[in-house]
Amino acid sequence: MFDTLNYLLAGFAAAATPTNLLFALIGCFLGTLIGVLPGIGPAAGTAILIPLTFQLDATGAIIMLAAIYYGAMYGGTITSVLINVPGEAASVITCIEGHAMAKKGRAGAALGIAAIGSFIGGVVATVLLVVVATPLSKLALSFGPPEFFALMVVGLVLVTSLAGESLLAGILMTVTGLLISLIGLDPVRGAPRFTFGMPELYDGLNFIPVVMGLFGIGEILATAEKPYREVIRTNLKGLIPSRDEWRRSMGAIWRGTGLGFFLGLIPGVGAIIPTFMSYILEKRLSKHPEQFGTGVIEGVAGPETANNSYANGAMVPLLTLGIPSSPTIAVLMGAFIINGLTPGPLLFQERPELVWAVIASFFIGNVLLLILNLPLVGLWAKILEIPYQYICAGTLLFCIIGAYSINQSIFDLWVMLGCGIIGYLLRKLNFPLAPLVLGLILGPQIEKSMRTSLEMSAGDFSIFITRPLCASLLALAVAILAFAALHFAPKEIRDPNAD
Amino acid sequence: MRRGWLAAAGAFLALFAGTIYLSLKLPLLDALGPGPGFFPLILALLGAALAVALIVELVRESQGAADTHGAEVAEPFMPDGAALFRMGGIAVLLLAAFSALDPLGYRLTALLFITLLLLVLGVRNVLAIAVVALALSFGVFHSFYYWLKVPLPIGGFGL
Fold it and tell me: Chain B partners of A408 at a C-beta cutoff of 8 Å?
């Protein structure tokens, strides 16, 4: 524990430099902006902004991108409350109570309690992350290639089974993502696979244009199907909840913190589930459940806290095990890889100064977000008044810049457009995109783990069954699939394209 | 919607069938263990089986619906004319922008792209179009190229 505290203090020293503070502030600002703007989700937004970090050192780049990620969780609340449109998928539930509060003239109180609850949830979750990170990473060091293979299979199975209305469609998308990740030169033998003689494909398909296409261009095309909404004028008065609202919110905030963090530890859960579960929990515990839906502050405090607690908790499997929980965290993982880092237990051993600086930046980022979201909420409300056509134009242009700047290649732009059209069609048919993205990011590592395992066993597949931990994890994956096949999860939380 | 799913399942089946064919042309095993074709082959076989299962499930559902409820009520899949114009306009303009990016350079391409895009999306305020197009072309180029050091193309006209 003392070692952990020493590392954390060193992390604060690194994160609190003027440069890294500036990166955290920029990331929080951009993340909140992405959360506020409907039509661009955190996955595409983070992917678009990755090229901006190419000139930064690895620590600064990861600090900024992580700030964008949890900043988007704060920002999505604003549109949910003010205009009943979720800025990002995890804010859907806030539309129910938050917008109802806004109609009663209590929008400020809803936004205020959401920001404060998010702050408490984020900070407590980060403290818990500090507590579990080191022991979990040490446990993960005992994992071999078969265990990592099995763990990634569990992560993919969780995402697949909880995304979308059809399990078959989810698995299909996962398999497709894994296959796309195999395009390029075989990492072990160097043989070209599925390149069709095109040199541009020797390094495979870069995940940034793919994600920008699926989540960015695809979303813009889907939005273009409907007539654009009129400019929304917002009416925002006062941000301070009443004493009664404070009293009713505190229990919800602490329950949301615990629930969000715990669910964030489970790879593949996604951000929408903690918010729904928190809402259901608060309704069950309430003395007046019939009031839910009419603007009850616990219905905002709990889910928003769970949302942010989840966002910070989900960094635990990424940093300690190298398993992303959602498409946005998968994009973050891609950012790590671009910077020459492999998230997982070895990162704590090889680059502790970077990992602990990033963890320390979570504390700082949550403070910055509280400052950005309380006094500056009027600014965000003004941004909502920009006609969507201008936002669409800007988003498309930043997608072009983002995709082009990776390799200065027009080929990446064509990939982005192709994925955009495919993403639109898949979205129209309600095929889940999250499993495809996770398959794309995890594919190379899954193949590497599997091939290394089979080389260890001289081609004997029983290595996956004879090692107890590996066998247990694979059995867990099978059990999860069996539950999903029985339609365990309620239909309401099966948003196919939630983050 | 069911027809759309059937078409998608058929496309997936074709994709996985093609992948199986290409994977079999790669070495599956060698002296060091699994070869480059091993993992893709397993995935493609799994994917093909799932695509077939999905097609079977969809056919059974449509037969069940026909038996109990009569003909399926067709859900509109294609967007209406105005939506198709917007979506098609976005796609065509993106195609044109990608083609023009290297020869014309970022600034000129972005200026034309934003102007035409805003017109396609229904904006008619000429001043607003001019300001936004200039800001997103020349303004963004200056920010990204000189401040953020993100290389953007400069075309034949020096723009």
Answer: 151, 153
Whether residues A188 and B36 touch (CB distance < 8 A) is answered with yes
Instruction: Please answer whether residues A121 and A264 qualify as being in contact, where contact means their C-beta atoms are separated by less than 8 angstroms.
Output: no
pTM across the whole model: 0.82
Q: Do A221 and B19 touch (CB under 8 A)?
A: no
CA dihedral of residues A73, A76, A77, A81 (deg, nearest 10): -170
- Are the beta carbons of A272 and A493 closer than 8 angstroms? yes
Helices (H), B70-80: none
Q: Could you give the angle at the alpha carbon of A60 between the alpha carbons of A58 and A63, nearest 5°?
A: 105
Q: What is the pLDDT of residues A157-213, one digit of tens each?
A: 877 876 666 788 889 999 999 999 999 988 778 888 999 888 888 888 888 889 888
| Of A73, A27, A41, the residue nearest A395 (C-alpha) | A41
Inside any domain, residue B153: no
**A207 lies in which domain range?**
2-493
Same domain flag for B50 and B87:
no
- Across chain A, what does the average pLDDT equal? 84
Taking only residues 127 to 186 of chain A, the set having a beta carbon closer than 8 angstroms to any beta carbon of chain B reads 166, 168-169, 171-172, 175-176, 178-179, 182, 186
Residue B11, pLDDT above cutoff 60: yes
| Range(s) of the domain holding residue B48 | 2-69
Q: Which residues contact A312 (CB under 8 A, 6 or more apart)?
A: A70, A121, A122, A125, A126, A129, A261, A264, A362, A366
Q: Tell me, yes or no, whether B50 lies in a domain.
A: yes
What is the complex's ipTM, to 2 decimals? 0.90
**Among candidate residues B25, B46, B69, the one where a domain is terminated:** B69
Question: Over 50: is that where the pLDDT of A262 sits?
Answer: yes
Quick check: A166 and B54 CB within 8 A?
Answer: yes
Q: Pick from B69, B93, B111: which residue ends a domain?
A: B69
How far apart are the CA of A338 and the nearest CA of chain B, in angstroms?
A: 16
Per the domain annotation, does A499 fall within a domain? no
Whether residue B23 has pLDDT greater than 60: yes
Query: Closest by alpha carbon to A45, among A56, A63, A32, A60?
Result: A32
Number of domain units in chain B: 2
Q: Please report whether residue A279 resides in a domain.
A: yes
Question: Is the CB of residue A405 less than 8 Å from the CB of residue B150?
Answer: yes
Give residues 96 to 155 of B whose Cβ lies within 8 Å of A.
Answer: 97-98, 101-102, 106, 110, 113-114, 117-118, 121-123, 128, 132, 136, 140, 144, 148-153
Indicate whether A35 belongs to any domain.
yes
pLDDT at site A103: 82
Quick check: A261 pLDDT over 80? Answer: yes
Under the banding of pLDDT at 50, 70 and 90, the label for residue B71 is very low
Chain A neighbours among B 49-88 (CB < 8 Å)?
A: 50-51, 53-54, 57, 77, 79, 82-83, 86-87
- Has residue B38 been placed in a domain? yes
**Residues of chain A found within 8 Å of residue B98, distances taken between Cβ atoms:** 400, 410, 413-414, 417
| pLDDT, tens digit, 9 for 90 and up, residues A325-341 | 777 888 888 888 888 88
Q: What is the mean pLDDT of residues A68-84?
A: 81
- Do the domain assignments include residue B101? yes
